[in-house]
Amino acid sequence: MLTELRIRNFAIIESLTLPLSGGFNVLSGETGAGKSIIVGALGFLLGERGSSDLIRTGADKATVEGVFDISQSKAIGTMIDERGIETDDGTIVLKREISSAGRGRAWANGSPVTATVLGEIGRALVNLHGQHEAQTLLDTDSQRVILDTFGGATAQAELVRESFAELSRIRREIAQLSSRRSDAERRADYLRHVTREIEDAKLTPGEDSRLEDEARVLENADELRTLAANISTLLADDEESILERLGHVDRALGTVQRVDPSAANLQELYDTGFYALDELSRAVADYARKVDLDPERLEVVRRRRELIFGLVKKYGPTLEDVIDTGRRSRAELDLVDSGSFDLAQLETQQKTANEKLIAAATRLSSLRSTASKKLAKAVDGVLPDLGMNGGHFNVMLTAKSAPDENGAEDVEFKVALNVGHDARPLARVASGGELSRVMLALKTILARADSVPTLVFDEVDAGIGGKVGLQVGDTLRRVAEHHQVFAISHLPQIAARAHNHIVVSKAAKGGVTTADVAVLEGSTRIVEIARMLGGDPDSKVSREHAKELLETATSS
Predict the structure, then answer these.
(1) Element (H or E) spanning 409, and its range?
(2) Alpha helix ranges (H) inside 202-318
């Protein structure tokens, strides 16, 4: 449970520490004192989106910190431990801040965590019901989720979604393959022409570059052979050749070395150069002999280059593009021949996936049918406690023509709020206050199976008062037998039912408005309840009335 909430420089709050206890905690105070801001700060801590607009005027960052006792929840401790966060003493401290530059940071027990991890932990610790959440009851998707949660069908609903997703994937593959096959059949003659033309050419990657090099050599073969012969003559083939003349250098170096042995390195350099030129001479002579004057081969190369040029012009701009076009054309043609087999396989998979979806949806329908009756009966049992004595709740399941990702039926909540009236959709019959009470009835029932330790209700008393307020307060007190409950309320009837009463007030500090809290006990709580009753909190009558409310709560 949440034991302490610390807020600093958040909206109008400069610095505030909110102590909470087990059971039913209520937060009261004048309108605009900052009650909903406290709930907003808690939501920010638990992973809701935040912006620099939340920062108090004149501050550079806003910080919210919550201390949670998880010693009684092994599952939550395990979940947190799996994320590498130590909780040896059964306590988890969450902290989140946002700077004026919009940069946010978060920690869990001092370890930095991402906003995603913070949200995962927060959702396991607190279930926060905002003041406008009752409106979600008008959404059929929300109604379906509530029914599945109550009926323990969440996992089965997920299985239906997964089964439908698999069936949809196969259907898309069938549609795509059928479309591609139809396109290929329409283009079959053209594809056969392209495939035959490219495959008959027997192209190889880089062939155009190799043919260009070969053609250049063949076209200049006579000149190349003449140049090579001249080089060979200059190097070694006459008395004035370079190698012959280097003999004089060799003899002169020998004389130098005999006189100065330290010049031996000159001889080594000479030997290296001489052997290199000698090897060059032999290589040039071999090259001259190998240069081939082959007009027939030149003609073959030219025709091959013309063929490739024509194909590149049609299917290019590069030879690799031509080869790729041939591959793709062959693949499309193969699709005409193999498509029937592939489609048959996919249709078999589709049949299997559809059978799996129907089986999963049938099981889900069974769970929903059972849950709908139990939920209607359970809500009917709670409505009188919330001032709706003639109310009747109903869950309608309307079969679909075929199951989809949400199952084989639509789910709709209907209610008859007065005796003798037919049940109608909530959106058509329920006022704001009645809708809030229906939501509270559902939350009361779902709370019994809810593993989240703390439930927060913001403005739970919207649209109600008098005796109904007492009934709502009693209901929240009963919920608090299984969970820590934290509620904001303007009604003294609800506040009097709380185990722990906190009041929020605001005042100017240093020229800037700020909010503060105080835990009420004894006479201070009597004064606050008297104020909430609308009379003079200092009058004896108002205080007696407040005492009576508190005494009634204690005895109930």
Answers:
(1) strand 407-416
(2) 207-219, 221-236, 242-259, 264-290, 295-315
